[in-house]
Design the sequence.
């Protein structure tokens, strides 16, 4: 084989490799480039002919994507949020409503537990958006539907079936003929799966502007106005029985027929935007944000407790996931994990523990409500009881939380 043919073969192999790694690079036509080897120095010709493939690979630019550095602070945020959700459900709606009904003074502590832990689900959505909306990550509809959405749908099918069977055959709350209804609707806590699938379905559109700072902030501004401010005002007018103002606001908003940036899609977009485009270098500014976040928790608690004492009814008007108060608190906590936990240099042992716990969080979410029901019914462990021993709810709820959390980790 002569020198010219060797050169042509090597040139073709290099072009093929470039094309196989990057589909946007078009294959050059063979007749577009001519190599005049007669004018090349002999040492270069020798290198072309006899140089090893390894030498060629080292000399050309690497087209392999750089290995991503894992965000261990995000794993920590996920773990923290999961334990927060379990505490919320351990001390949640049922317990607080019961204490209010019997006018128990312990309701104040339980109300505080429930206000502190409202960040859980919004934090999960922020974290989901952090990774799904990254344009540098390879996207395909095949991966979206066969991996992301199918995984969630499979989880829903399994746990909805299990919940339905428990309600029918163990708790005897429903008839076997109601299985299909129970399966399709699912238990209340499984709403999270429907919501996150909805975010995944619109993610191809959201990815188009996730790295456009102006468009992303315009979108988030719409989310804050329509998805948080308006609902918060509606809750305030309703809570304080300002009926005329409430009717006027409801009429005004209904005429817009606006549904584009409501509820959790704002958190989904904000997650990636904060990680990629928001860096607060000044510790004084971050410290001020953290202080405001703490104040916000007690503001949520104060307004909620005052309203419940006034009406005697359970209220989530100031602590629902989409309210401005909860949104601000959640975002501040997210920034705390990014900036403060993100600067920690974890040991190898800590990394193994964090990675393991993070991998378990989704299973913990799916199983913890079943465990809560089983422990309450058969082990006599609940908000005001531990193995038959009566407790006050401020003590019993944290114990209940620890038992559920520990049980959900046993996989």
Sequence:
């Amino acid at each position: 084989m002569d020198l010219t043919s060797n050169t042509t073969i090597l040139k073709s192999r290099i072009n093929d490799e470039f094309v196989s790694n990057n589909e946007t690079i078009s294959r050059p036509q063979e007749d577009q480039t001519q190599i005049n080897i007669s004018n090349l120095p002999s040492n270069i010709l020798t290198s072309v002919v006899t140089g090893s493939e390894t030498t060629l690979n080292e000399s050309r630019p690497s087209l392999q994507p750089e290995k991503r550095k894992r965000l261990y602070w995000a794993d920590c945020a996920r773990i923290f949020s999961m334990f927060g959700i379990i505490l919320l459900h351990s001390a949640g709606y049922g317990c607080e409503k019961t204490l209010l009904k019997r006018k128990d003074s312990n309701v104040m502590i339980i109300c505080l537990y429930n206000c502190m832990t409202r960040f859980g689900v919004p934090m999960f959505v922020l974290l989901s958006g952090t990774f799904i909306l990254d344009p540098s990550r390879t996207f395909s509809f095949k991966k979206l539907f066969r991996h992301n959405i199918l995984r969630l749908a499979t989880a829903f099918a399994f746990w909805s079936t299990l919940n339905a069977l428990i309600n029918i055959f163990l708790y005897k709350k429903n008839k076997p003929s109601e299985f299909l209804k129970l399966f399709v609707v699912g238990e209340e806590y499984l709403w999270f799966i429907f919501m996150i699938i909805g975010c995944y379905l619109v993610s191809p559109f959201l990815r188009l502007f996730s790295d456009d700072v102006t468009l992303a902030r315009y979108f988030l501004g719409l989310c804050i106005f329509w998805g948080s401010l308006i609902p918060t005002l509606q809750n305030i007018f309703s809570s304080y029985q300002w009926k005329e103002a409430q009717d006027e606001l409801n009429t005004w908003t209904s005429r817009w027929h606006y549904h584009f940036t409501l509820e959790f899609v704002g958190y989904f977009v904000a997650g990636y935007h904060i990680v990629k485009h928001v860096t607060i270098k000044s510790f004084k500014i971050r410290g001020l944000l953290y202080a405001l976040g703490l104040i916000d928790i007690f503001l949520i608690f104060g307004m909620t407790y005052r309203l419940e004492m006034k009406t005697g009814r359970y209220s989530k008007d100031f602590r629902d996931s989409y309210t401005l108060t909860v949104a601000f608190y959640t975002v501040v906590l997210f920034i705390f994990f990014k900036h403060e936990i993100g600067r920690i240099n974890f040991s190898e042992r800590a990394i193994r523990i964090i990675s393991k716990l993070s991998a378990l969080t989704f299973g913990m979410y799916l199983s913890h409500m079943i465990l809560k029901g089983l422990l309450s019914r058969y082990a006599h462990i609940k908000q005001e009881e531990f193995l038959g021993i009566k407790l006050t709810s401020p003590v019993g709820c944290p114990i209940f939380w620890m038992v559920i959390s520990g049980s959900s980790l046993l996989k």
